[in-house]
Amino acid sequence: MGLAFGLSLSVIGAAWGIFLTGSSLVGAAVKSPRIRSKNLISVIFCEATAIYGVIMAIVLNGLMKKPEGGIENGSFTDEWNWSSFYFAGYGVFSSGLSVGLTNVASGVAVGIAGSSCALADAQDSSLFVKILIVEIFASALGIFGIIVGIIQSNSCQFPYDVAN
């Protein structure tokens, strides 16, 4: 579930940001067609949040393997350390959820900043770089989220055999 939440919420955040940026970009390009190509960077920043979710999904998927040993008649024996399974499972869930929620916030923030960047650039081209800096700071939220998710997932050790 953590892997699914991390990936799906990251894609939702990216889509929401692209919607916000793209709609303003298309509307502002009617007045000033010169902004179309250089404001596409705002869409790229939104898409980065989806990529962060994919990276975290790959990291979390690498943690999970099929357990070996200690299985009798298709079910686990009592020799397993169930508290390690619970700890690792909740760790994967919380890291995926934190990355997903952070990327929703990052996608919306980048979308709003990208929308403002397109509208301001249509009015005055000297404002593009100034507002792009704000958009970069909004994109950093997604980077912080994936760093926190990786730190959380580092403590998730699933036992693979009865000895663990």
Automatic annotation (TrEMBL):
CDD domains: ATP-synt_Vo_c_ATP6F_rpt1, ATP-synt_Vo_c_ATP6F_rpt2. InterPro entries: ATPase_proteolipid_c-like_dom (IPR002379), ATPase_proteolipid_csu (IPR000245), F/V-ATP_Csub_sf (IPR035921). The chain crosses the membrane at residues 6-28, 40-64, 84-115, 127-151. Residues 1-60, 94-151 form the V-ATPase proteolipid subunit C-like domain. Signal peptide: none annotated. It is a multi-pass membrane protein. GO terms for cellular component: proton-transporting V-type ATPase, V0 domain. Gene3D superfamilies: lithium bound rotor ring of v- atpase. GO terms for molecular function: proton-transporting ATPase activity, rotational mechanism. Keywords: Hydrogen ion transport, Ion transport, Membrane, Transmembrane, Transmembrane helix, Transport. Belongs to the V-ATPase proteolipid subunit family. This is V-ATPase proteolipid subunit C-like domain-containing protein. It comes from Triparma strigata.
